[in-house]
Amino acid sequence: MSSVLIIDDEGDVRDALALVLGRAGFDVQSVEDGEAGIEACRKGLPDVIITDMIMPKLDGAQLIRQIKSEAPDAKIVAISGGGHFGPAAYQPAAITTHAFLAAATAAGADRVLTKPFDAEDIVEAVRSLLQDSGHAV
Amino acid sequence: MARALNTLLGRILLFVLVSHAVLLPLLYLTLSHGTRVNAEETYLDYLRGYSRFIADLIENQPVSMPDSDVVALMDSVVLGHDGVYAELRLPDRNLRSSIVSDADEQRFKEDFAFNSHDDEVYYLSMPVKVGEQEGQLNLGFSESDTAAEIARLHRQILISLVIYLLLAVLISIAMGVTLSRPLSGLQKVSRQVALGDFSKTLDAQSSIAEVVELAHDLEFMRHELVQVNTRLKTEIAERQVLEAKLRHSQRVETIGTMAGGIAHEFNNILVPITLYTNVVIEDLPEGSELRGYLLRVQRAARRARELIHKILAFSRQLEVEEKQPEDLAKIVREATDLFSSLSHATLDIEVEITEEPCFVYGDATMLHQVVLNLCTNALKAIPGMDGRIRITLTTETRHPSSALQDRQGLGASYATLTVEDNGMGMDAATSERIFEPFYTTRRVGEGTGLGLSVVHGIVLSHGGDIMVSSDLGMGSVFTIHLPLIPEGKPLLEQAPLRT
Question: Which CATH code is given to the segment(s) A3-78+85-130?
Answer without folding.
Answer: 3.40.50.2300
